[in-house]
Amino acid sequence: MSNLIVNINKKLNHFTLDLDFELGKEILVIQGESGSGKTTTLNIISGLMKPDRGYIKLNNSILVDTKNKISEKVQNRKIGYVFQDFALFPNMTVKKNIKFAIKDEKIYTEIINLLKIEHLLNNYPAEISGGEKQRVALARTLVTRPELLLLDEPFSALDSKLKNKLYTEFKSIIENLNIPVILITHNEKEAEILGDRLLYLKNGRIQAR
């Protein structure tokens, strides 16, 4: 069964992004050269950008249907998006960063325990490591109870030793959540360890490698 259906078309500067794929409760890795349309794909799915033509359905909700002039607001899409730079608020503690988007106190406790970050709650982002920031950014996203998780190069700023440790933990967390995930990465090892399926983009289209 497909949890996510994506059929989108958007004209960009040097090519037209033209994608058609479906996703179940699995980790889909998207790879491709810089400028091939990877981040644009996530931005369209999340609602940060609009396609010229398209249809996006997540579970029972139609998020985009340009034919029928449907375009759900970003805040109503039930999608979690973790950016490459984590985008944490520097003037807020870890606890306040996570609680900024909270809807349910119970899931806050569950996610804090799941990601093992209880000891960081009173720290500010500048006081914690890259790996810890990654966990906090993930926690802030997961407390919103997303039905889909989008990740844009979430491990790129971390050193190799730390990455290897986080891969195992991340895979375990995603299996626990049981939701579809789209992960952008340039790292072949990362794609092999984490991905259940791979899409390779070139000039906005899915290519065989």
Task: Give a structural overview.
With 209 residues, the protein is α/β, with parallel strands linked by helices. The chain is built from six helices and eleven strands. It has helices at 38-46, 94-99, 105-115, 130-142, 160-177, 188-194, and strands spanning 4-11, 16-23, 27-32, 53-58, 61-65, 70-71, 79-82, 148-152, 181-184, 197-202, 205-207. The strands form two sheets. It has a six-stranded mixed β-sheet with strand order 7-8-9-3-10-11, with helices on both faces. α3 (105-115) runs antiparallel to α4. The model has no long low-confidence stretch (mean pLDDT 90).
Number of DSSP strands? 11
Shape: globular
Q: Helical content, roughly?
A: 25-40%
CA-atom Rg in angstroms: 17 Å
* Tally of DSSP helical segments: 6
**Main sheet?**
6 strands, mixed
Pick out the low-confidence regions: none
Strand order of the largest sheet: 7-8-9-3-10-11
Report strand %.
25-35%
Note the main attributes of this structure.
globular; alpha/beta; 209 residues
Task: Present the secondary structure layout.
Layout: E1 4-11, E2 16-23, E3 27-32, H1 38-46, E4 53-58, E5 61-65, E6 70-71, E7 79-82, H2 94-99, H3 105-115, H4 130-142, E8 148-152, H5 160-177, E9 181-184, H6 188-194, E10 197-202, E11 205-207
Parallel strand pairs: 3-9, 3-10, 7-8, 8-9
Antiparallel strand pairs: 1-2, 1-4, 4-5, 5-6, 10-11
